[in-house]
Amino acid sequence: MTAALDHAPASAPAAPARRPQRTGRGRPARWPAVLYLGPGMLGFAVFIVVPLAASLVISVFDWPLLGSPRFVGLENYRYMLAGDPAFWRSLLNTLIFAVLYTAVNLAVALGLSYWLMNLGGRWAAFFRVLFFIPVVTPMIGNALVFRLLLDDDGVVNALLAHLGITGPQWLNTAGWAMISLVMMSLWQGMGYNIIVLGAGISGISPTVLEASRIDGAGPVNRFVRVVFPMLSPTIFFCTIMTVIGAFKVFAQPYALTEGGPGNATNTLVLHLYRNGFSFDRLGYASALAWALFVIVMLITAVQFSQQKRWVSYDS
Amino acid sequence: MTADVTARRAAPAPRRRGIRPGRLISRILICVVGLAFAFPFLWMLATSLKPTDEVFATGTSPLGSRLEWSNYLTAWTAIPFARILVNSFLIALVGAAITVTVSVLSAYAFTRFAFRGRATLFGAFLATMVLPQEVLIIPLYLMMQELGLVNSYPALILPFAFGAFGTFLIRQFLLSLPADYEEAATIDGAGRLRTLVSIIVPLLRAPISVVFVFAFIEYWASFLWPLIIVNDSWMATVPIGLQMFSGERGTDWGPLMAAVTLVVLPSLLIVVLLQKQLQQGVSMGGFGGR
C-alpha cells in the first residue's frame, strides 16, 4: 500500500538503488544521515508515532480531563459498539456524507476542470482561482455564510418563493440538513480537486488529444477514451484524499448544523470531539479515534486493492 | 457596397480570433456558473452592510435601507481582530517555514544517504500521510497539558509541522536531480550542509514553494486543533476568533457578516498572491501530473 502510494502520483522515476555514498574524505557516512534525519524523525516520533500508540492506551481507560484515569479494559469499545446509539448514527452519517461528497465532488470537479481546459488561457486561470477561494477561507466563516443563506427566511428560500416554491427548513429537517451539509462542503472543497485534476489534464500531451480529434472523436468520446484513462492515476489520488477528507468532516457539521437536528448530521469526528472535550470522556473519545483510524485505513486499503481495475499507469 | 465592406471586415475575423459560437456559449455559461459559485461571498458582502434588523426582511434585495458601515467597526472591536490576524499569519508563516526546513533535511537524508532500514523507515513515515490527524488530538492535548503548553504558540505550531507530504514531494525532485553537482561541490571542499543550502535548495525552489504554500494554507484554515488548544481570544487564530464572535452574538448578522468579510479578504489575498505556486505546483509531479 505504501509502495503504491509512493509510486502512484509520481512521474519521477522510481528510486534507483544508490551506491553507498562517498564523502571524499573517508569519514564515516552514518553520522550525517542521523543529523539530517534527526529533526524530521524526532518530530515524527513525538507528534505522530507516540500519540498514535498513546491513544490506543488511553482508549482502555476511563480518562477524565482532570482527575486520575481508571483502567477499564475494553469497556469503551463495548460501549461504542453496543451501548452508544449515537456512534452508529454518526458512523452512518459519515458514510452517507462520504459517499455523496466524494461522488459529486469528483464528478463535478472532473467536468469543470475538463471544461476549463477547453476554455484555456486566462479564463481557465481565473476560474480556477475563483473555485479555490473557499478552500482557503476559514470553514467557520463559510459555514456562517451558509447559515445565513439557508435560514428559513434566508435568501435561498426567498429566491425559491419568487419561483412559487416553498423552500424547506434547510438546517432543521433531518434529510435537508444532510443535503445542506454536503452542498456547503462541496462548495468549500471542490476547488482543490479542480486544481489537481486541472494540472493532470494539462499534463496530457496535446498531440494525443489532437490525434484523437483528427480521428473524429467528439469531446465526450475524447473524454471517455483518452482523457479519463490518462488521468486515472490523478483521479485515483484525488479519490483517496477526498474520501479521507470526508471521513474527517468536523468543522462543517460543528458550525453549520451543530450535528442536528438531533443527531441527523452528527459525524464521527464531531462525536469524538464532543465526547473528549464536552462530555469529559477522553478514554471513550480515543476508542472512537481508533475506530476512525481503522475504518479509514480499511477503506484506503480497499481502494488501493481495486486500483488495478481502472487505473492505468502506462502513458 | 456597405454590405460588401461589412462582409469583408467581418469575414476573416472569426477565423483568426477563433471565436466560434460554441466557444462563446461556453464562456457565457462558465460566467453563470462562476457567478452562482461566488454568490455566497457576494451575499455575505451585501449583508455585511445591512442593518441587522433588515437582514431577513429585505428578502432577495441586496441592499438595505442604508449602508451600515458601523457593522465593520462592531466586528473589529468585538474581538481583538488585529491581534488575531497577526496570530494566524505568524503561526502559518513559522509553521510553514519549519515544515519546509524539516522536509528538505529529511528528503535529502532519504535520497543521498544509504543506511540500513531506509526503505522501511520511509515507508512507515509515508504511510502516515493517510493517517487522520484527528486520531491524535487527544494524546496531543494531554501532552501539551503535561508540558504546560496549552494556549501557546508552540502548541499551535509544532504538532502539525512533521507530516510526510513535504518530505515526499521534495524527495521526488531530489531523486531526479543528479548527484554530480553536489559531489563536485563536496570534493571542492564545501561541507555537506553548505552544499545543500547553496546548491541544492536553489534547484528545489519549485517544490519548496509548493510545500510552503500548502503548509501555510493548512495552518491558516486549521480549525479543530486550535479549537481545543486555544482558550482565550488573545491567542485565537482567525477561525477561532470568528467562532468566539459567533458564539457571543450568533444572530447579529450584520456585524457577523462584516467579521466574515474581514476574514475572507486576507484569505482572498493569499489565494491571489500564491496562485502561481498553487497552479504550477500541483502539476510538478507531486499530485500526479504526467
Question: Main attributes?
Answer:
heterodimer; A: mainly alpha; MetI-like fold; two-stranded antiparallel sheet; globular; B: 290 residues; mainly alpha; 15 helices; disordered N terminus; disordered C terminus
Description:
The complex is a heterodimer of chains A (315) and B (290). Chain A is mainly alpha-helical and 315 residues long. Chain A has a single domain (86-310), classed as MetI-like (MetI-like fold, Orthogonal Bundle). Helix content of chain A is 72%, strand content 1%. Chain A has a two-stranded antiparallel sheet. In chain A, strand 1 and strand 2 form a beta hairpin. The two termini of chain A are 22 Å apart. The relative contact order of chain A is 0.13. Mean pLDDT of chain A is 85; it is low at 1-28. With 290 residues, chain B is mainly alpha-helical. Chain B contains 15 helices and no strands. Chain B has 2 domains: 13-72, no CATH class; 79-248, MetI-like (MetI-like fold). The radius of gyration of chain B is 26 Å and the shape is globular. In chain B, helix 12 (205-221) packs antiparallel against helix 15 (253-286) and helix 14 (238-248) runs antiparallel to helix 15. Helix content of chain B is 71%, strand content 0%. Chains A and B meet through helix 1, helix 2, helix 4, helix 5 and helix 6 of A and helix 3, helix 5, helix 6, helix 7 and helix 9 of B.
